[in-house]
Amino acid sequence: MQIDIVTILPSLVKGFFEDSIMKRSIEAGHVTLNYCNPRDYATDKHKQVDDYQFGGGAGMVLKPEPLAALLDDLMQELKYDDIIYMTPEGETFNQKTANYYSQKQNLIIICGHYKGIDQRIRDLYVTKEISIGDYVLSGGEPAAAIFCDAVIRLIPGVLNNETSALTDSFQDNLLAPPVYTRPAEFRGLQVPDVLRSGDFQKIEDWRHDQAVENTRRRRPDLLED
Ligand code: ADE
User: 142 alpha carbon to ligand 1 midpoint, in Å?
Assistant: First the structure.
C-alpha cells in the first residue's frame, strides 16, 4: 500500500511511524508513506500556503493553488483509490472503515490546518471526508496518523501473529476480553483458572463470554448493531 500524506507539518506525523509496529511495517515493505508538502508548490516568494477567509472571521484557510498543483502532480503518477480529507465534519472513523481501507492500494490523505482547506479543493479533488471523533484538533495530522495506524496494522503480514488483529476490540462488534500475563498471582489477585487450564475450547468460550459481558456493560450500543 502507498499512502501519500499531504501536510504542511510533516514532523507532526512522522514520529508515529518511527517505532514498533508502524516502523516495521514500512521496513518490511508492507506500506510506503510519502510526505507531500503544499509549501513546495507555493509560487510566491514567501511560499505562502494560507490566507484570510472571504467574508471575514478568525482563522486562516489553506489556499487552493498549491494544494491543487500538488494533487495534480500525484494524480499524474498514480491512480488513487480515494483522496481523503481529515476533518471533524467527515464520517466518523471506526474499525469497519479501517478494515475497508486496509484492502486498498493507493491513498492520499490531506491534513487541514487552521480553519481547514479551501472548499473548492473538497469539491474538485476530495472523494472521502473522515473524522476521528467529535472534537476539534489543531490540524489533521494526528488524525491522519491515527487513521494510518489503524489501517496499516490490518494489512496481512503486518502483525507477527495475524490472528491477533482478529481478536481486537471491535473486530466483531465486541470489546476485547481481559488479558493476563505472569505472575499468576499479583497483589492477591489470581489469573482466572480457565486461562491456565490448557483447554483451548474452554479458553475460547471464556474469552467470548467475557467480551460479550464487557461490551454489554460498557458499550451496549455495539450489541444493538
Ligand atoms: N482535524 C481537526 N479535527 C479533526 C477530527 N476530529 N478528525 C479528523 N480531522 C480533524
Answer: 8
